[in-house]
Write a sequence for this structure.
């Protein structure tokens, strides 16, 4: 793929995700119809409408590209594609339905299983994050970097206390500022911007939860892996991963060492 083609795809991606964000606000705090795909896993008419919009805007050449979205029926043809669009129409549907501004529209392009383009948009707060592989990460057009925090003690970690309490002492926990937010992609974006020092989740995550947001963090100078420190590979037959740790390089190393006993 040449650089001009990637630039064109980036422009298309950002415009499409912005349009999807505008669409989401028509439903936000307006009591959209919703139901459960499975117990505890809600979806709404807004998720479906945004999925259809992004698919129409991004997935235009089925002969070359693949498509993987939380709200689309999976098609194994994507496994033969080098380029795959990976989308979560609304990451954080539960807070979206509760009227909390803790959700994000996420879309990214992976090439050979690794992220190359990313856009993560929280339309309720107006924060638009984007990244191009090798071209840095931005929030609302301004370059962002992960924090230089190097120690767990005193850090700002997006995680739940129950998770950390299994692996850290009470004394260590007392020094940490714990942050709870609904969307994992938005949490990763806040790590990329340096507002949070780290994000830890030891619960299973899917490609659409992380593909776009991972690129934000890595292009902002951070590291993103599964809890044992291994790199995440996308567009596999089962797009599922055992959690995520994201942080600046030194803090990431400390966190992976802490959780490696999993």
């Amino acid at each position: 793929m040449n650089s001009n083609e990637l630039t064109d795809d980036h422009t298309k991606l950002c415009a499409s995700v912005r349009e999807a964000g505008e669409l989401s606000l028509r439903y936000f705090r307006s009591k959209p119809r919703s139901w459960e795909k499975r117990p505890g896993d809600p979806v709404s008419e807004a998720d479906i409408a945004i999925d259809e919009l992004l698919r129409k805007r991004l997935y235009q050449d089925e002969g070359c590209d693949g498509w993987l979205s939380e709200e689309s029926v999976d098609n194994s043809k994507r496994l033969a594609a080098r380029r795959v669009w990976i989308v979560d129409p609304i990451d954080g549907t539960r807070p979206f339905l509760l009227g909390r501004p803790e959700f994000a529209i996420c879309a990214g392009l992976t090439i050979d299983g690794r992220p190359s383009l990313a856009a993560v948009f929280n339309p309720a707060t107006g924060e638009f994050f984007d990244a191009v592989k090798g071209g840095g990460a931005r929030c609302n057009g301004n370059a962002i970097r992960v924090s230089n925090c190097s120690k767990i003690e005193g850090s700002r970690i997006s995680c739940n206390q129950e998770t950390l309490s299994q692996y850290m002492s009470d004394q260590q926990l007392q020094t940490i500022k714990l942050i709870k937010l609904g969307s994992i992609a938005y949490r990763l974006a806040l790590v990329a911007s340096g507002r949070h020092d780290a994000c830890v989740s030891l619960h299973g995550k899917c490609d659409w939860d992380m593909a776009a947001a991972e690129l934000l963090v890595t292009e902002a100078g951070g590291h993103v892996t599964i809890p044992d420190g291994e790199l995440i590979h996308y567009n596999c037959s089962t797009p599922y991963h055992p959690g995520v740790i994201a942080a600046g390089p030194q803090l990431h190393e400390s966190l992976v060492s802490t959780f490696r006993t999993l």
Q: What stands out?
A: The chain has two domains: 3-143, 156-259.
